[in-house]
Write a structure and sequence with these properties.
Strand content: 15-25%
Number of domains: 3
Helix content: 40-55%
CATH topology of the largest domain: Triger factor/SurA peptide-binding fold
Radius of gyration: 26 Å
CATH architecture of the largest domain: Orthogonal Bundle
Order of helices and strands: EEHHHHHHEHHEHEEEHHEHEEEHE
CATH superfamily of the largest domain: Porin chaperone SurA, peptide-binding domain
Largest sheet: 5 strands, antiparallel
Shape: globular
Length: 425
């Protein structure tokens, strides 16, 4: 299932589902693809949750949601099958990487930090990207194929007016929106704290080389990598590019059996042992230690954030440029947010926005993982769109409806030429 682990955290992000779950009851077969009952059930539960429907209290309604979800999955596989045969649909690896990174960045923003996101997901970033790369590629192929079919479908002014007159009572209101920018600097260990971690790892290396303890046992006791520590730090064979740059640069330069000095990466400090090397693949095990920041380190971070506050107050363009830089560097909530719906703003940020005036920059605010600055730019009240205040939006809705009808009919036609079998209960 697309983002089967992450959906549990943010089920409202995705509506497309490609089943890859454990083997259980088969719900349907679409061409060469098997749709599992468990995957349909899980997706249906997310839909029910979003609509605040309790399956135990409204079983008939939930059954309808289940059948609708199954039909949606079948349609997606049918479209993917057709898209795979269209040579004009090209999705490069770089396209997929960018899309996957953007989705992950969105998750990180909602979680509050990369560390919290990974903790909630219960997976390493490497595992997340490896597990869901193909899902994102399939999703992009479907989206581009669908666009190729509907891009020439348009609506006239008369059709827009007819749409508005027919659906004006059901057009959703435009929610409250804020425009703001954030700079968030996470707590991090300074030189003194780094030195403590480095010396500790050097002591562990000495114990291993003196045969006081094995690398495996030391990793099980002291490594802070939750994914590999229980198995002695083993990462198995990994192709070049699968691990962080700093780790690979050292590992590929080592001799088999060699243990590195402490190596720093975004995750912390590593001791690496090279077990085997086969062309562009290496087998390694490692011990990870995460540096712990001190009160002195926190004070230094505060001072650096206050310097940014002093230098950018009254200069939003400079602040925005810095927020973009820190977003790329830290992968946290740093960045510029224009017309951002209230429902998508984390509570700790929304609290600060309510305290600020237009074009005001907050002083440094301590949050769980660091200090942040919030620059508040604009606010839009909730309103009901109509043809006078939101012509472009009503036009967009009318066009989308016509395109959806067109594409739905097209999907019905192609399904007639694809083997589809739906299994009961």
């Amino acid at each position: 299932m697309l983002f089967k682990g992450l959906v549990l955290l943010f089920y409202f992000i995705f509506s497309v589902c490609f089943s890859q779950g454990k083997v259980d009851g088969v719900a349907a077969i679409v061409g060469k693809n098997v749709v599992l009952h468990s995957d349909v059930l899980q997706q249906a539960q997310f839909v029910a949750m979003d609509k605040q429907i309790d399956p135990s209290k409204k079983p008939y309604l939930f059954e309808q949601i289940y059948l609708s979800t199954l039909d949606n999955i079948i349609n997606q596989y049918a479209v993917l099958d057709a898209a795979a045969k269209d040579t004009n649909i090209v999705v490069s690896n770089d396209d997929v990487d960018r899309a996957l990174n953007q989705q992950i960045d969105d998750f990180i923003f909602k979680a509050g930090s990369e560390e919290l996101f990974l903790e909630m997901a219960g997976m390493s970033m490497r595992q997340i990207k490896a597990d869901y790369w193909q899902d994102i590629r399939d999703m992009m192929i479907v989206e581009r194929f669908q666009y190729s079919k509907i891009q020439n479908v348009d609506v006239s002014r008369i059709e827009v007016l007819q749409f508005y007159n027919s659906f004006k009572d059901s057009i959703p209101s435009s929610p409250e929106k804020y425009s703001f920018s954030i700079i968030e600097i996470p707590f991090s260990a300074g030189d003194k704290s780094d030195k403590i971690t480095i010396n500790f790892l050097k002591e562990l290396k000495g114990k291993i080389q003196s045969n006081i303890a094995s690398f495996d046992s030391i990793a099980q006791i002291y490594s802070q990598d939750p994914g590999s520590a229980p198995t002695g730090g083993y990462l198995g064979f990994t192709p070049r590019g699968a691990l962080v740059k700093e780790y690979e640069e050292v590992a590929y330069s080592m001799e088999v059996g060699e243990i590195s000095d402490p190596i720093k990466s975004d995750f912390g400090y590593h001791l690496i042992k090279l077990l085997d090397k086969q062309g562009e693949k290496i087998s390694t095990q490692h011990i990870l230690r995460i540096t712990v920041y001190s009160d002195e380190d926190k004070t230094q971070i505060y001072n650096s954030v206050y310097d940014i506050y002093s230098q950018t107050t009254g200069h939003p363009s400079i602040f925005d440029s810095l927020s973009n830089t820190y977003s790329k560097k830290y992968k946290n909530s740093s960045g510029k947010y224009s017309n951002f719906p209230v429902s998508r703003i984390p509570g700790y940020i929304f609290t600060q926005l309510e305290l600020l005036n237009f074009d005001e920059l907050s002083q440094p605010i301590e949050v769980d993982n660091g200090y942040l600055l919030v620059y508040f730019y604009d606010y839009q009240k909730e309103f009901v769109p109509d043809i006078d205040n939101s012509w472009d939006l009503i036009y967009k809705y009318a066009k989308q409806k016509k395109q959806n009808i067109f594409f739905t009919n097209w999907v019905k036609n192609i399904k007639a030429n694809i083997y589809i079998k739906i299994f009961d209960g």
